[in-house]
Design brief:
Elements: H1 3-13, H2 26-69, H3 75-82, H4 84-106, H5 113-138, H6 143-183
Helix pairs in contact: 3-4, 3-5, 4-6, 5-6
Length: about 180
């Protein structure tokens, strides 16, 4: 706006300004009203906050408790409850099989890669069958027969690994024998 416009504006408003002083205590009454308004707005927020936080805490505790007490035990835990000997036997055989698998992987060469891969596939199938046997044991099948089948499964895996390791050893010896004859 130009200076002339502002001057004209004030000339037009002249005489309409409130020049009266506020009544005595006006400022204190204003501050009292302002504080009263603040208090009424904040109190409901504080009142909502506490019960809501308590309810949320109780809900979280209930959810955790429900999850802990209603969690279904794993297949291995269920089998161990039925027959503790199975879990000890499984641990023994599993560690033996794991050692032989590591040895098999260490012996893997380009010449033996195919046989190692096939062996790993067969081991997966045997492991799947073992899991089915565990499930049958839990479902209440003939426990003596199933336990015998479980042990046979472990023995089959060990025999398979041992046979493959012997085959790999034979392949290595054959290769060394061929190399020895060609260098002479």
């Amino acid at each position: 706006m130009k200076k002339d416009d502002i001057d004209n504006l004030f000339k037009n408003l002249e005489g309409s300004f409130d020049l009266e002083a506020p009544a005595h205590g006006h400022e204190q009454r204003f501050l009292d009203r302002l504080n009263a308004q603040k208090n009424t707005k904040t109190l409901p927020n504080k009142e909502w906050w506490k019960p809501l936080s308590i309810a949320a805490s109780i809900a979280i505790i209930c959810a955790i408790t429900f999850g802990v007490f209603n969690s279904k035990p794993s297949l291995e835990q269920q089998v161990a409850e039925i027959s503790p000997e199975v879990s000890r036997t499984e641990f023994y055989f599993a560690s033996l099989i794991e050692e032989q698998i590591n040895e098999l992987k260490n012996e893997s060469t380009p010449e033996t890669k195919k046989i190692v891969d096939d062996t790993m596939i067969q081991l997966k199938k045997l492991e799947t069958n073992y899991t089915k046997l565990e499930q049958d044991l839990i479902n209440g099948g003939n426990s003596k027969l199933i336990l015998s089948a479980m042990i046979t499964n472990f023995q089959t895996r060990i025999d398979l690994l041992q046979d493959v390791l012997n085959t790999i050893e034979s392949i290595k010896n054959l290769k060394n024998y061929d190399n020895a004859e060609t260098t002479i």
